[in-house]
Specification:
alpha+beta; 23% strand
């Protein structure tokens, strides 16, 4: 398990709307912009840490302001492609709160961060029993059925509660503020309940005649 000693207080950030990383989860990324190629190479040469964080307004000119909370990820895999891109995987370590964005000479952005409010992320993952898995999976099935989608149900039943909830929070196409609320939710139980509410709301919004699973 990582410790506070593994977490630098200054590191680059990758602002990406709709993308949230959770501790112990893995996020694959396709890097092609020159400034982010520089960011990955500099991170490889340094602490290997990149902060995933969402911009508050991705549509405005220049670098948009970012949310106060993101998640630090460690470079787990970096592969170069033949056309100049980098395929990377970030392993989520711990959420952080932005203290300030730094004025720097790099093309990519950097922040000073505080991990203090989220040190529980460094503790062992929660065991089964903290999440109403039966209801969560039933709501997920209704959500996917409404969209004509399938899931690897055997795999979903095998993974632990935290991995299941984090995967749904990361992969489901919820709105940016909704994803941010999931990221900032302090507990796994609270996050699971929020995911269930979002799945239920999205299903009922798409089909008002549908009934939520009990």
């Amino acid at each position: 398990m990582p410790s506070t000693a593994d977490l630098p207080t200054v590191f680059p950030i990758f602002p990406l709307s709709g993308a949230v990383l959770f501790p112990r989860a893995t996020m694959p990324l396709n890097i092609f912009e020159p400034r982010y190629l520089d960011m990955v190479r500099d991170a490889q040469a340094g602490a290997g840490i990149i902060g995933m964080i969402q911009p508050r307004d991705a549509g405005g000119p220049g670098d948009p302001p970012v949310y106060d909370v993101g998640c630090a990820g460690r470079l787990d895999r970096v592969e170069e492609t033949g056309d100049g891109r980098l395929l990377i995987a970030l392993e989520g370590l711990c959420r952080f709160r932005v203290v300030e964005e730094l004025t720097c000479t790099t093309l990519y952005r950097q922040v000073s961060a505080d991990f203090g409010p989220f040190l529980s992320d460094l503790e062992p993952p929660a065991a089964h029993g903290t999440v109403d898995r039966e209801r969560l999976l039933a709501l997920l099935k209704a959500y996917l059925d409404d969209r004509g989608l399938e899931a690897e149900w055997d795999a979903l039943h095998r993974i632990d509660d935290e991995t299941l909830v984090s995967a749904l929070a990361m992969l489901c196409p919820f709105d940016t503020p909704e994803k941010q609320a999931l990221l900032e939710e302090p507990t796994l139980t609270g996050r699971a309940k929020a995911v269930m509410l979002l799945l239920q709301f999205e299903t009922m919004a798409a089909d008002p005649t549908s009934a939520a699973p009990h």
